Amino acid sequence: MLLYFRLARRLATGFFVLTLVALMPGWAQSPDGSASGANKPAGSDGAPPVLPAPNPPDAANPVQPEKQDKRVFGVFPNYRTTDGNVPFQPITSKQKLLIGLKDSFDWPVYPVAGAFALLYQLENQNPSFGQGMKGYARRYGTALADQVIGNMMTESFMPSLLHQDPRYFRIGKRRGGVAYRAAYAASRIFVSRTDSGSQQFNASEWLGNGAAVAISNAYYPDTRTVGNNVERLGIACATDAFSQEMKEFWPDVKHFLFHRHEPDTQPLLSTQSESHQVTH
Question: Ramachandran region of residue 86, left (φ > 0), alpha (ψ -120 to 50) or beta?
Fold first, then answer.
């Protein structure tokens, strides 16, 4: 019971930090629907295409894939979301690696790590880190390591090893109401697509986060008990579920706030290949 309350409290405070980061004026998306910062033309970063996925509602009249924003709330990396209403096409191990790298080293990762480090400082987690700038620096480094290792394990290494697809296949309003979509998004931490397009248990999520938690014992000297490890694993997987809820509903929230459907002018790892196929 104590572990349950600790997990719930940690999740609540963590999501509060994420919400504050997303809504800070300097980072939030502008009313014209574009994210802050300069835009780059499609394909200018040399990124390989990540094509859309699963099965269309009507194979005889396939829908056109929706473009997805590169960031949720103009902040959180969103490079692995794709349209779940178009025919599935697999991605390569190189593309899985690129998804993990983009999610791990995009600029919002650094202030988010700083926000979590501040939370951990206030709670005095891992007391051996101390307080002051030295303690905060250690907490910042470990919070950043948690994000990078977790992303790479769940989005790149484990999916490549287990032949699973790390993308989130957004279903949108075409496939159901709010409750159905919310349940679908949350369930994706348990269900994954394989490289062949079938569905199976999302071992990449749980083994990847489990490996990240095991590695974190090397730099968390005060929290190496079984209970601490189970707590960190639960927080990591629950955070991923929350992230998928944001991915699923962000276009709806964006339209409600800004009355726009258009995504950022810089695409995900997406439309370059589609345009190439049309012209050839």
Answer: beta
Q: How far apart are CA 240 and CA 156, in angstroms?
A: 15
Query: What are the backbone angles phi and psi of residue 80, rounded to the nearest 5°?
Result: -110, 15
Query: Are 82 and 244 in contact, with CB atoms under 8 Å apart?
Result: no
- Order of all β-strands in the sheet with 199-201: 164-165, 191-194, 199-201
The 10 Å Cβ neighbour count of residue 191 is: 12
**Residues 1-14 pLDDT 10s:** 444 445 555 555 55
Q: What is the pTM of this model?
A: 0.72
Q: Which H or E run contains 272?
A: helix 271-279
Question: Mean pLDDT for the chain?
Answer: 78
**Helix and strand totals (H; E) in the chain:** 9, 7
Instruction: Specify the pLDDT at position 270.
Output: 42
Helical H runs in 108-225? 109-123, 132-152, 158-162, 178-187, 203-216
Residue 217's CB is within 10 A of a number of other CB atoms, namely: 14
Residues 35, 264 contacting (CB under 8 angstroms)? yes
DSSP string for residues in 2-53: HHHHHHHHHHHHHHHHHHHHHH-TTTSPPTTSPPSS----TTTT-PPP----
Q: Where are the domains positioned within the chain?
A: 2-24+49-279
